[in-house]
């Protein structure tokens, strides 16, 4: 027997193939686990990077939203501006319409007065104006009246006026020669009703401004019973187109028209339609 036979061999026993395979499998599993864990850890570590990479997309969306909001705001501003322009245009149109209305009323009043003046002229032209104006001039210079053939002049009462009537007569006679101006109320130019109104105002009597109203301001009297200071009217009572003041002796004073101005004339020059007595 060998002298070493009783001593165990110092060599490690050989491993079997199955042992080696099992250990390899265990090692592979461990490595796989480590790989998975490592991959998971890498994935977890990479998440912030992934979120950071998505920020440009979110920022682009936000920019688009901001741009859309700005566009809406701009459209709203444009709408408000358009509405403001429309409101301004409407206000301007209303102002112009108001001015046009005032101008139309003014022109209507002027046309009305012109129509009244035309009616007075038409009435005056019923007689031979050239011959009667010559008579008018002579009467104004001498203070006499033409009573021949004048039924109204011959049947009226005395020309002597007293009190307030005398003051009215004196007032209108002092305006003879003044100009006729449509709408005139003195002191140097008159229309027919403006002269009559001013004459009676001088004695404290307030008359309406227009001839239509003045023709019904007092008591109606017949033309055969006139007294100085009576108001004569041409046309219908309440629709008269001309007025004057009877001053006695078959004469009256009135603001006739722009051609003659304020004149003193006989009743035959332009016979009145009626008369009213205020005093």
Overview of this structure, please?
This protein is α+β, with helices and mostly antiparallel strands and 279 residues long. The protein has a domain at 118-277: endopeptidase fold (from Nostoc punctiforme) (Alpha-Beta Complex), CATH 3.90.1720. It has helices at 17-124, 129-142, 151-155, 163-174, 192-201, 211-214, and strands spanning 179-180, 189-190, 219-221, 231-234, 242-248, 251-257, 261-266, 274-277. A hairpin with a 2-residue loop joins strand 5 (242-248) and strand 6 (251-257). The model is unreliable at 126-158 (pLDDT under 50).
How is the secondary structure organized here?
Blueprint: H1 17-124, H2 129-142, H3 151-155, H4 163-174, E1 179-180, E2 189-190, H5 192-201, H6 211-214, E3 219-221, E4 231-234, E5 242-248, E6 251-257, E7 261-266, E8 274-277
Parallel strand pairs: 1-2
Antiparallel strand pairs: 3-8, 4-5, 4-8, 5-6, 6-7
Helix pairs in contact: 4-5
Please give a quick description of this structure.
The protein is of the alpha+beta class.
Features:
279 residues; alpha+beta; endopeptidase fold (from Nostoc punctiforme); 6 helices; 8 strands; 13% strand
| Elements, N to C (H/E) | HHHHEEHHEEEEEE
Distance between the termini: 188 Å
CATH class term of the domain at 118-277: Alpha Beta
- CATH-scheme architecture of the domain at 118-277: Alpha-Beta Complex
CATH homologous group name of the domain at 118-277: endopeptidase domain like (from Nostoc punctiforme)
Q: What is the strand tally? A: 8
The unreliable regions are 126-158
CATH topology descriptor of the domain at 118-277: endopeptidase fold (from Nostoc punctiforme)
Widest sheet, order of strands? 3-8-4-5-6-7
Mean pLDDT: 75
- Major sheet characteristics: 6 strands, antiparallel
Q: How many whole angstroms does the radius of gyration measure?
A: 59 Å
